[in-house]
Amino acid sequence: MNEFVTPQDGYDLIGDVHGCGATLATLLETLGYHLIDGVYRHPTRKVIFLGDIIDRGPRIRLAVQLASRMVDAGEALIVMGNHEYNALAYCRRARQHKGEEHRDFLRPHTSRHNRIIRETLEQYQHHPDEWDEALRWFMRMPLCLDLPPLAPGKSGLRVVHACWDESLVRAFLERYPDGRIDEDFLHDSIDSNSFAWRVLERLTRGASLRLPEGIEIHSGDGFTRRSFRTHFWAREPRTYGDVVFQPDNLPGELESRWLSDDELSNLPYYGPEQPPLFLGHYWCEGLPALPAPNIACLDYSAVKFGRLVAYRFSGEATLDAENFVWVPVPREPSRRPLPEELPVDALASRGPSHDEPAE
Length: 359
Ligand SMILES: [Mn+2]
What we know:
Layout: E1 10-14, H1 21-30, E2 34-36, E3 39-41, E4 45-49, H2 60-72, E5 76-78, H3 82-91, H4 111-123, H5 128-140, E6 144-147, E7 157-160, H6 166-175, H7 183-188, H8 195-205, E8 207-210, E9 217-218, E10 224-225, E11 227-230, H9 240-243, H10 261-265, E12 277-279, E13 295-297, E14 299-300, E15 307-313, E16 324-328, H11 344-347
Parallel strand pairs: 1-4, 4-5, 7-12, 12-13
Antiparallel strand pairs: 1-15, 2-3, 6-7, 8-11, 9-10, 14-15, 15-16
Helix pairs in contact: 1-2
Bound molecules: manganese (II) ion.
Manganese (II) ion binds at residues 16, 52, 81-83, 161, 281.
């Protein structure tokens, strides 16, 4: 394992890969990275992955291999996504405490949870050691990064999978200065009254609001939701519509519904004077755009035939949509761009195919 050395020119931030391993290799090549000794490298830049490398896509093992080798070689950093956290909790046996309800795993194996991790477990089915190694790698992923400027006059940057909640981040980093959780933290996180739960929920899943009694959203991913995802960069939000941030529209009149004082007090806020912040998690669609001058979300639904998106950051305090770089994932397999440097047998390593093989 090589030590991470800060890059000369800047960081290329890459959004949620979700098992689109071939598309990831293509994006890295598009960004000028070359495969050297089995690792994609750039002479003057480094990658930061925004988490959610696994689940859903057809080449999850390839995606994990590409990303973890870059991190181990000191060519990339990564933050944990909610899918990596889910996988850890799904695979970790619960500790039994007297008087508590019996629980086999930290994350119960319900049909919904089974479905979310299904492709990952299937593709690793005949590679149990590799899966154990992947889980150990997930444990080493920090939840957030707060990186200093690369040179005088440049801006630093912050990275988190879903939500930068300043007070929670500070409280967490005080106890876990390298941003990494440990076994006790993972086990504590199943209790929704614990600090660990609040940190993991907010940083990797973001803030959300419960819908009023009797109202549900039928989401594009086939799930029924009783809450909606909110963003955290509206200066003085008044209505649900001011903070909603997910592809599903709010039903009916809810867009104009007033936020209660309780709801407002629970919403974090990231102001325009803060350093640039990079997020994944929220499925965006269409051409990449900046939700705020200092915030970029890089999840453009690659695994749903969208785009795998990067942002080339070179220390600018005000972000510029010109710095987005992406690889499209067309529905038709023959039109999907393929990497040139990756050996063909690496591309053949896909698991059993599923309903939506996105690459
Ligand atoms: Mn996510």
